[in-house]
Amino acid sequence: MAPNSFWKRTPGQMMEFLLGLDVNYLAETLVAFANADGGTIVVGMDASGEREEGIFLDDVAMALQSAQSRCRPPVPVEWHPSETPDGLPVLLEVQRSPDLHSLDDGRVLVRSGRLNRPLGGEEILHLASGKGRGEFELEPVPGATLDDLDPDIIEEYLDKRKKRSPRAIAETPEQVLVEIGALDAQMRPTVAGMLLFGRHPQVFLPKTGVQFVRFLGSRSEPGSQRASDQYGRREEMVGPLPRLIQETWELLWQYLNPTEEVNGLARQEHSDYPPIAVREAFINAVAHRDYRIRGRQIEIHMYDDLLEITSPGGLPGYITLDNIVDEHFSRNPRIVNGLYYWGYIEELGTGIDRMMSEMARAGHPPPVFHETPFSFTVTLYSRRDRAPIPVWEEDMNERQLKALNYIAQHGRITNREYRQLCPDVTPETIRLDLADLVARGILLKIGDKRGTYYILK
Questions:
Q1: Could you write out the three-class secondary structure of the chain?
Q2: Band of the pLDDT at 392, cuts 50, 70, 90?
Q3: Contact status, residue 379 vs residue 301, Cβ threshold 8 Å
Q4: CATH number for region 15-129
Q5: CA 296 – CA 448 distance, rounded (Å)
């Protein structure tokens, strides 16, 4: 671990700092990380770098043993001291587990941002169903050998990983590929390895590319939907995921109609859709699609009035349309981890939030999400219902993002419905949140007193 590298990070989806040896909280965090995307627990130091005196390795070992006794089944943990200028805090590294873990009191927890959140019955069933399918990413690709991986892409990945990784990595490229699940113990490329580093992944894994179609006219116009003679351009994008993402983004950028406007000394960029929102929708499709589905690839359909991105596979794990703003669960954690080191994913669990906030800031309707058992679609609309929000007014809190997502699904929201979405805050906070969105011109208040509800302006 590079000196000082821990405390440049903060508690979050995959990081926790633990001062003291609270066995109960340690057990909860082990279970939550194992059921989600894994994570690192730094014992003996807080996020600012302040180290707790009197923490010894034997103490940590005993606390970990006691915590494991509360986990059903025990959570696999790699632990080691890490040298820093102030001493030796201990790192406990928890990997995403193929098993469903619970505490001895029956609670099933997942990591949700900075919190360890207990799941309800329906969510537990969804999570158990997803884990029961095994780790498809780690399956070896039939017929593939190490020679089918591209050494240039591997070298590029290793360079980026060294710059971003908070700890030392294995010595040789082959050791790194085994460590990250790109090669199995017999040095055969896995599904994750082939998708990330393959010379020609689609030869072994058909339909893992991207289909882009630019249709003529608007989606709402009669006869404009998917007729073979109604599109102006059709492209099939293939290659390893890092190249696939870059080439597809360059193609998309041509159709976002970017323009620049100089206002005084300030230069402002405008486009038909907020680039960050489009980027997040596309990266999410690549990172979280179900690669077991062989008959369909990611589809990007662009019309004059909307952009539609569809990925094979329904929502993963315990994610639903109701909790998609608040929760995060990766169907493909090794692919997600690889894309993180390439810089395509900045922080886990923030993609939907950024997509929604960017659309709202630019004056567009919120994204519309549609799920079937075998696909997930994000629709972005090019129309603007109001003027863009000035930069100094663009920040929205998590509660307000929940409200926008609710309105996107239901068309409107009442004060009571907002309170049900955010039960841990006071009625006055709810009132101020809604008043703020009205004042910004994002929501329109309809009715009076008990009959009041809010819609997008």
A1: CCCCCCCCCCCECCEEEECCCCHHHHHHHHHHHHHCCCEEEEECECCCCCECCCCCHHHHHHHHHHHHCCEECCCCEEEEECCECCECCEEEEECCCCCCCEECCCCCEEEECCEEEECCHHHHHHHHHHHCCCCHHHCECCCCCHHHECHHHHHHHHHHHHHHCCCCCCCCHHHHHHHCCCECCCCCEEHHHHHHHECCHHHHCCCCCEEEEEECCCCCCCCCCCCCCCEEEEEEECCCHHHHHHHHHHHHHHHCCCEEEEECCEEEEECCCCHHHHHHHHHHHHHHCCCCCCCCCEEEEECCCEEEEEEECCCCCCCCCCCCCCCCCCCCHHHHHHHHHHCCCCCCCCHHHHHHHHHHHCCCCCCEEEEECCEEEEEEECCCCCCCCCHHHCCCCHHHHHHHHHHHHHCCECHHHHHHHCCCCCHHHHHHHHHHHHHCCCEEEECCHHHCEEEEC
A2: very low
A3: no
A4: 3.30.950.30
A5: 49
Six-digit token pair at 256?
Answer: 């976002």
* Cα separation, 304 vs 356, whole angstroms: 20
Considering the chain, what percentage of its residues have pLDDT values greater than 90? 42
Is-contact 337 181, C-beta < 8 A? no
Quick: pLDDT tens for 72-105.
999 999 887 765 555 567 889 998 888 899 999 9
Give φ, ψ of 188 to 5 degrees.
Answer: -100, 135
Amino acid at 206: P
pLDDT band at 168 (very low <50, low <70, confident <90, very high): low
Domain layout of the chain by residue ranges: 15-129, 138-200, 210-381, 411-456
Is the four-CA dihedral 72, 88, 347, 357 of positive or negative sign?
Answer: positive
- Give the number of other Cβ atoms within 10 Å of residue 216's Cβ: 14
Block residue for tokens 């040298």: 83
Q: Helices 151-164 and 241-255 meet at what angle, rounded to 10?
A: 80
Topology of the domain comprising 411-456: Arc Repressor Mutant, subunit A (1.10.10)
CA torsion, ordered 173, 176, 181, 182, to nearest 10 deg: -20
- Euclidean distance between CA atoms 354 and 279, whole angstroms: 10
Q: Which residues pair with 111 in a beta bridge?
A: 116
Q: Which two tokens stand for residue 111?
A: 């990591």
CA 71, CA 101: separation in Å to the nearest integer?
7
132-167: pLDDT as tens digits: 555 789 999 999 999 999 999 999 999 988 887 755
Q: Which CATH number fits domain 210-381: 3.40.50.2000, 3.30.565.60, 3.40.50.150, 3.30.420.40?
A: 3.30.565.60
Q: Structure tokens of 180?
A: 């990250």
